[in-house]
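Figure caption, in words: inputs first, then the predicted bound structure.
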Amino acid sequence: MKNLFGVIGDPIAHSMSPAMQNAAFNMLGIDGCYHPFHIKPQDLEAGVRGMKAIGVQGFNVTIPHKTAIIPMLDGVDPLAQAIGAVNTVVREKDQWIGYNTDGKGYVRALREGYQEALENKQVLIIGAGGAARAIYYTLTSEQVTRIDLANRTLEKAKELVKRCPFPSDGAVLTVEEAAGQLEKYDIIIQTTSVGMAPNTEAVPIDLSRLNPKAFVSDIIYNPFETKLLKQAKQRRARTQNGLKMFVYQGALAFEKWTGAFPDTSKMEEIVRNQLGGK
Ligand code: NAP
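Bound structure (NAP present):
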């Protein structure tokens, strides 16, 4: 029988993980298959038990279960615990152990796209939600500490920085304050949902003061190029969308389950095709 893997969420039909992960199993000749499981919040505990009962070896966790699942697991890796969210669960000695590969997936994508040392670069993160927390805590865990954080709701940004378990020495700003000193940033990481389809005309920050040498990264991948990235390109900055983050978080989960790291360029092609090949 094939080893069974999957993703749980509500809704789940839109997930691109099954196509991407099944392709990875095929590419590597590993006898596994990956299914989407629609589990509603009120059924989460029973669902997690059920995954074990039917022999699932590992699964991804998506909206809205990433935080709620933590008390239902047998163990949680320290970085995922600090982030307060689990996106990958591995069956280890018949126990469910939770990890977070979102932040590591993002940082891997950033290192690939930016191609310069990140340490000592001046970074701005816009947003203070779940994705921002994963990225901020992973960057600081990798000694990238000069990170300013800007968010619409300032209190949420302050809380995120206060709870960070790794050393960091950036400021917490309003989005307007960050825009007013934008020329100082080498790397700008956009993590809010502003600009995501269908609201593709929205822009989360004014780029008038953007340094053309900056690298602007938007973790949204639908659309492939947000209005923010278009504006950054017009100002001659280098840009990266969220596709590689998505692919790398999946590849790192796959590696946790199987010990093998898949070909991410093939996975990226599959997600791109799923999104309409734009
Ligand atoms: P979240 O926890 O709900 O956080 C949302 C963030 O967006 C908060 O900072 C929120 O600000 C801000 N925001 C929302 N609407 C806004 C508006 N109208 N004006 C200004 N700020 C606004 O969401 P998340 O899980 O972090 O996800 C955020 C985005 O990242 C989504 O677009 C998601 O698709 C994308 N994402 C991509 C990947 C990937 O693999 N590429 C992975 C995860 C997430 P407040 O605090 O003020 O509400």
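The mean pLDDT is 96.
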